[in-house]
Amino acid sequence: MFEGLGKYLAVWIVSVFISSIAQVMLKLEANKAHTSRLREYLNPCVISAYGIFFLSTFLTMYALKYVPLTYSPIIEPLSYIFVPVIGVLVLKEKVSRRRILGMGIMMLGIVVFSL
User: Fold this and answer.
1) Contact 79, 23 (CB under 8 A)
2) What is the pLDDT of residue 63?
3) What phi, psi does 44 have (nearest 5°)?
4) Mean confidence (pLDDT) of the chain
5) What is the pLDDT of residues 18-60, one digit of tens each?
6) Where do the domains of the chain lie?
7) Residues 6+ apart with CB under 8 A from 90
8) In angstroms, rounded to a whole number, what is the distance separating the alpha carbons of residues 37 and 19?
9) What is the mean pLDDT of residues 72-82?
10) ∠ CA(66), CA(20), CA(91), 5° rounding?
11) Per-residue pLDDT at 3
């Protein structure tokens, strides 16, 4: 059953990563001023982000057909690491010591859970 599990884990990780990109896209758009509520939600960036979320959902469902659900506490929290890293790279956000400590604790939790 676990033969070839690596490629399905990779699909799931890619799914989490592109979902993180969509989150950053929504954050980027939320920081902009819009002329109306309609333009705030119906613009190419927001629509693309929700399309990416939709794709991410299908990738996750596909991966979960082959990967045991017990991997979920290991894979899904990766978004808590991807989003700040993408935010630093794309949005030029500052990373505080508390955020670094929090990401470190999450990584430690992932490692401990996976043992």
Assistant:
1) yes
2) 93
3) -55, -40
4) 87
5) 999 999 999 988 888 888 888 888 889 999 999 999 999 999 9
6) 5-114
7) 24, 28
8) 24
9) 86
10) 160
11) 63
Which residue type is seen at 42?
A: L
Return the residue matching tokens 């890619």: 14
Which of helix, strand or coil describes residue 87?
helix
User: CA end-to-end span of the chain, whole Å?
Assistant: 20
CB atoms within 10 A of CB 52: 19
| pLDDT bracket for residue 95 (50, 70, 90) | confident
Q: How far apart are the C-alpha atoms of 94 and 78, rounded to whole Å?
A: 19
Considering just the CA atoms, what is the radius of gyration of the chain in Å?
16
Structure tokens at 46: 């927001």
DSSP secondary structure, 5-60, as one string = HHHHHHHHHHHHHHHHHHHHHHHHHHTS--SSHHHHHSSHHHHHHHHHHHHHHHHH
Q: How far is Cα 5 from Cα 10, in angstroms, rounded to an integer?
A: 9
Per the structure block, which two tokens stand in for 101?
A: 């400590």
Tokens of 44: 């190419």
